[in-house]
Structure to design on (190 residues):
């Protein structure tokens, strides 16, 4: 008997290949809550793809001790001055942490603690980001090419999107004079 197997999962030709890859696509029309400039948002075709996520769930959701893996592909673009970004979430089990590892492109990881303090970490090819527990996270593409990164998170973490959908992050990432800056989110509902 041969005890050596082929890999179950492989990142090849810019995509995740294996059995049972979960794929989701988020278009602008799915992201009505997150962008601040509602007028600019309304002017862009809702079918515009903002990001795709390919994930592997080797164990059932909510399995304590299990791990999930996913690759996010975030397209370049802006809504008004605000960069294309992911919805963002806290984990449902708040203390669950995560790693992000940037594959390609130029981005910003936005992190907000439960007191509403928001900070940014630059993402560049090869950069590795530890997202502590109790910290909401989202990514923005600040370049002109696709931003891709891999993520590793506990299978029982879960995603709480509602809190961010309702309150947003306390700061938003906008382009000012050609560079990304974090500014106070005036639309934050405390
Ligand atoms: C990532 C994110 C992915 C998409 O895999 O789920 O980047 O962002 P949203 O989930 O906020 O739409 C992760 O953080 N998983 O826990
Ligand atoms: Zn997460």
């Amino acid at each position: 008997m041969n005890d050596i197997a082929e890999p179950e999962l492989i990142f090849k030709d810019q995509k995740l290949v294996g059995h049972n890859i979960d794929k989701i696509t988020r278009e602008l029309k799915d992201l009505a809550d997150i962008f601040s400039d509602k007028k600019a948002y309304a002017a862009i075709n809702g079918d515009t793809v903002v990001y795709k996520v390919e994930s592997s769930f080797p164990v059932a959701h909510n399995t304590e001790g299990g791990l999930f893996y996913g690759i996010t592909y975030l397209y370049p673009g802006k809504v008004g001055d605000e960069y294309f970004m992911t919805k963002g979430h806290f984990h449902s089990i708040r203390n669950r942490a995560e790693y992000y590892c940037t594959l390609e492109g130029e981005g910003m990881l936005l992190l907000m603690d439960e007191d509403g303090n928001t900070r940014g970490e630059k993402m560049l090819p090869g950069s590795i980001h530890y997202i502590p527990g109790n910290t909401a996270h989202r990514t923005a593409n600040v370049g002109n090419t696709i931003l891709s990164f891999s993520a590793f998170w506990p299978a029982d973490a879960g995603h709480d999107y509602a809190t961010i959908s309702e309150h947003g992050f306390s700061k938003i990432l906008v382009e000012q004079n050609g560079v990304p800056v974090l500014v106070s989110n005036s639309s934050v509902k405390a």
Observations:
- The chain has one domain: 28-184.
- The chain has a mean pLDDT of 96.
- The first strand starts at residue 9 and ends at 12.
